[in-house]
Amino acid sequence: MQIYKEGDKSKAICPHCRKLVATTFQVRTSSIHDGNSTYRVPMVLVGVCDQCESNITVPQQSFAAVSEVRKKAEKETLDFRLPRHLLDVLSNSIVALGVESSPDLRSQLLRLYVASFFSDNKAQMKHLKTNLKSDLLVGTIKRSSRLSMKINSQLSIRFEEIKKNSGLNKTQIIDSLIVEVNKDVLSDNKNSVRLTELKRALLATG
Amino acid sequence: MGLKDIRKNAIECLKSGRVQAENRADIKDKNLLKTGVVTTDIVVTLLGATRGNQYRTVPHKDDPTVSIHIFEPTVSGENWHIKLYFLDPDCWFISVHKSHVVRPANNMNRRHHANIQRRR
After folding, report:
1. What is the pTM of this model?
2. CA–CA gap between residue A179 and residue A134 (Å, rounded)
3. CB within 8 Å: A13 and B63
4. Cβ atoms < 10 Å from Cβ of B6
5. Helix, coil or strand: residue B26
6. What residues contact residue A89 under an 8 Å CB cut-off, 6+ apart?
7. Helix (H) or strand (E) holding A47
């Protein structure tokens, strides 16, 4: 792959000078424009017009850096109202996995569970519904606690597909996933394979 | 140079990292390649899927000696719009995005309808 270095020369048609100009690659914190969006990308290699000093091109090697900033900007926040005892299930599961609990890790644990469910797996979709009959969700439940979960665009699509194929709403899905966490981590029939995977993933995040 | 040569050059540039994307605030064109939404492999597939009647050229408005190549393939039922030009040795991508413009029937459909007409 062609890799440009800072100071290398190229050429481009400058939209400000409105002609073919010489450019120099420079590392700058740049505003990268795309349609109606602008991403501020820190310290990225861009092509700068030698005449007007504007950043007019982005070389292929910098696309990955732009992509990282875009992904961060596109993260969506999902808010849920939950009964306190379900939040306690998450916190205690994290502690049981040997990691110090925090709000970030609670949402990370849920993200791992969202990622492990596939909307085209009918058995898993049925399982999500069955979980709603758990003792944890029976009786009068006061949803007095809040949980915020940031998810990237890929996980957001997965979440929407699960919603569509399971016929559950977003709160029911999260309730069901927490029941699943409880089964895997806190119940008597622990899922030892799952526990090892979760512990590794949470340690890497925490 | 026709579609085949232009496409070959563009694919060579994509595979060898000789691609640059325009960065301008005055045009609202989307470049999904620049922002990493689509990969170079996808763009190669889109260029490969472009037929003769889905390709045209226009002169660059700031430098009419430079030709802008427009590829408008339909892949998996979705219309795409890719705009690029060459300044040797690199290839500049102005836009890469899905298009919501309803296009006339493609070649295959025309051929299909022509065959039906002929049979009648």
Report:
1. 0.63
2. 7
3. yes
4. 21
5. coil
6. A136, A178, A181, A182, A186
7. strand A37-49
- A11 vs B24: CB contact, 8 Å cut-off? no
Polymer length of chain B = 120
Distance between B72 CA and the closest CA of chain A, angstroms: 18
Q: What is the pLDDT of residues B41-74, one digit of tens each?
A: 999 999 999 999 999 999 999 999 999 999 999 9
In chain A, what residues touch B23 (CB-CB under 8 Å)?
30, 32-33, 46, 55-58
B28 touches chain A (CB under 8 A): yes
Chain A partners within 8 Å of B87 (Cβ): 11-13, 20
DSSP calls for A187-201: SSS--HHHHHHHHHH
Per the CB < 8 Å rule, is B16 touching A2?
yes
Q: Is the ipTM of this complex over 0.90?
A: no
Measured distance CA(B115)–CA(B88) in Å, rounded: 43
